[in-house]
């Protein structure tokens, strides 16, 4: 008996039909084959001899020890990443459910029936008690996948599983970049706060000198009030950047997913100029097609392609098998005796004849879904190309901006010292001192801003170029 059911199960499992899904061909990339060129761009090598960002793990890309600890803490605690990982587990389970439909489901069962027949129905003129006992194995409602409907549904679930894996990678890359960006922003605001504090101390000293000169009749009331304005301006900046620092710390706590220890936090931006290192992007096709969001869009496109095969198979007959083998007897003690064996084989076939166009509409909907997936895949590539091109444009000019701003800061510092000396000798007005002082303070603030922009640009390039390699990726193709 068990031998028969095993042979039956193997036979039906081997009756898999061909897929009716269209052949998948990756759409042509709707972008240029080279990165943009012009005054805003550095010369990008056609093929970098060194590692590209897609080959570099984040631990090697972000080399600052404090930043590495923060990123590790975020990967362990961030709730968005946790949800993405759980979505992978859910998608994996859904795929296994769909794949199970490819195989017969064999169930063991036992039953007992007790029945009394009335005199009129017993055939003997007397009421009769009937007992029936049955035990056996059976295959219930197994569909022979002759036209690939179940296989295509399984393929769609598989591609959905792959897509969730890529979605998790995308979340991780974004998370790593966000932690780094928040870390740098906090460092910049702390440096701005320190600069405002130093400026306030300097201006308070100048204000006291001006007040003494005013009391001695050597300075005007206008000079005194202008000095007071510079002190109050610095006080406003201290209050403003104190707020920014607190908000940056709150944002870092949120993205990390827990309270960040104080020894993980930066003191100022100048201490983090080597927090990330430079990179080479390589060719557009090499870089963009390995971005997880684009791989996710392609997986969804493949799934939509498989759905077309399932919709096409709905036009063809569906064959369902119901079978069982076992033993049956009217006496429990005779259940396994010779002659008690029973079997049933009940194939069913259904052919759609009239469904008011439902199957055709489902096929058209599946084809439109595929076309939508193609457009979304192409849009993802175009968006990625734009993001990388913008980052490369900033990268091509940001070092010049930093160098120019450093030179400007040095020049305004020297101008302030000279105007201060001329004022103290009485050969210049205090208005020139104030103007030079404001210029120096503004240049120092802008220098912090452009240094932050340079480092943030490297973080952005890490993100938009695909985020580096990841070992033991949960969404790795099976």
CATH topology of the domain at 31-100 and 174-283 and 384-464: Outer membrane efflux proteins (OEP)
Output the number of helix runs.
11
Assembly state of the chains shown: single chain
CATH architecture of the domain at 31-100 and 174-283 and 384-464: Up-down Bundle
Q: Helices and strands: which structural class?
A: alpha+beta
CATH superfamily of the domain at 31-100 and 174-283 and 384-464: Outer membrane efflux proteins (OEP)
Strand content: 5-15%
Overall average pLDDT: 82
- Span between N and C termini? 37 Å
Query: Mind describing the biggest β-sheet?
Result: 5 strands, antiparallel
In terms of per-residue confidence, which ranges show pLDDT below 50 for 5 or more consecutive residues? 1-16, 471-478
Envelope shape: elongated
Number of strands: 5
Order of helices and strands: HHHHEHEHHHHEEEHH
What's the CATH class label of the domain at 31-100 and 174-283 and 384-464?
Mainly Alpha
Helix-residue proportion: 55-70%
Radius of gyration, taken over Cα atoms and rounded to an integer in Å: 37 Å
Structural write-up:
The protein has 478 residues and is of the alpha+beta class. The chain has a domain at 31-100 and 174-283 and 384-464: Outer membrane efflux proteins (OEP) (Up-down Bundle), CATH 1.20.1600. The protein has 11 helices and 5 strands; from the N terminus they run ααααβαβααααβββαα. Strands 1, 2, 3, 4 and 5 form a 5-stranded antiparallel β-sheet that branches. α4 (79-100) packs antiparallel against α6. The longest helix is centred in the middle third of the chain and has 67 residues, at 149-215. The radius of gyration is 37 Å and the shape is elongated. The protein starts with a helix and ends in a 14-residue tail after the last helix.
């Amino acid at each position: 008996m068990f031998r028969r059911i095993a042979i039956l199960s193997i036979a039906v499992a081997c009756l898999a039909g061909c897929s009716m899904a269209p052949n998948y061909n990756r759409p042509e990339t709707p972008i240029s084959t080279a990165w943009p060129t012009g005054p805003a761009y550095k010369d990008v090598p056609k093929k970098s001899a060194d590692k590209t960002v897609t080959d570099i793990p984040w631990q090697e890309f972000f080399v600052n020890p404090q930043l590495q600890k923060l990123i590790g803490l975020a990967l362990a605690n961030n709730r968005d990443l946790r949800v993405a990982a759980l979505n992978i587990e859910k998608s994996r389970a859904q795929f296994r459910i769909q794949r199970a439909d490819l195989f017969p489901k064999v169930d063991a069962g036992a039953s007992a029936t007790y029945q009394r027949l009335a005199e009129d129905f017993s055939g003997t003129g007397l009421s009769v008690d009937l007992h029936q006992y049955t035990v056996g194995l059976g295959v219930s409602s197994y569909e022979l996948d002759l036209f690939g409907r179940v296989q295509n549904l399984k393929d769609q679930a598989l591609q959905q599983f792959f897509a969730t894996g890529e979605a998790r990678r995308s979340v991780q890359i974004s998370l790593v970049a966000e932690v780094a960006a928040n870390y740098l922003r906090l460092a910049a605001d702390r440096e701005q706060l320190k600069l405002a504090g130093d400026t306030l101390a300097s201006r308070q000293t100048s204000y006291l000198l001006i007040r003494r000169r005013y009391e001695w009749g050597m300075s005007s009331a206008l000079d005194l009030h202008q000095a007071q304005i510079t002190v109050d301006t610095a006080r406003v900046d201290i209050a403003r950047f104190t707020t920014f620092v607190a908000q940056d710390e709150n944002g870092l706590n949120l993205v990390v997913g827990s309270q960040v220890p104080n020894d993980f936090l930066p003191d100022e931006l100048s201490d983090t100029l080597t927090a990330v290192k430079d990179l080479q992007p390589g060719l557009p096709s090499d870089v963009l097609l390995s971005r997880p969001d684009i791989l996710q869009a392609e997986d969804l496109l493949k799934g939509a392609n498989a759905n077309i095969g399932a919709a096409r198979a709905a036009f063809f007959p569906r064959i369902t098998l119901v079978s069982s083998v076992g033993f049956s007897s009217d006496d429990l003690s005779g259940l396994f005796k010779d002659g008690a064996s029973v079997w049933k084989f009940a194939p069913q076939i259904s052919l759609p004849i009239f469904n008011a166009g439902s199957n055709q509409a489902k096929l058209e909907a599946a084809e439109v879904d595929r076309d939508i997936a193609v457009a979304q895949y192409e849009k993802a590539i175009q968006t990625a190309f734009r993001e990388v091109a913008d980052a490369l444009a900033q990268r091509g000019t940001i070092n010049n901006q930093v160098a120019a701003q450093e030179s400007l800061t040095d020049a305004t510092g020297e101008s302030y010292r000279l105007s201060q000396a001329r004022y103290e000798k009485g050969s210049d007005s205090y208005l020139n001192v104030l103007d030079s002082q404001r210029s120096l303070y503004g240049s120092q603030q802008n220098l912090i801003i452009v240094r932050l922009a340079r480092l943030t640009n490297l973080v952005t390039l890490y993100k938009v170029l695909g985020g580096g390699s990841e070992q033991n990726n949960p969404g790795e193709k099976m």
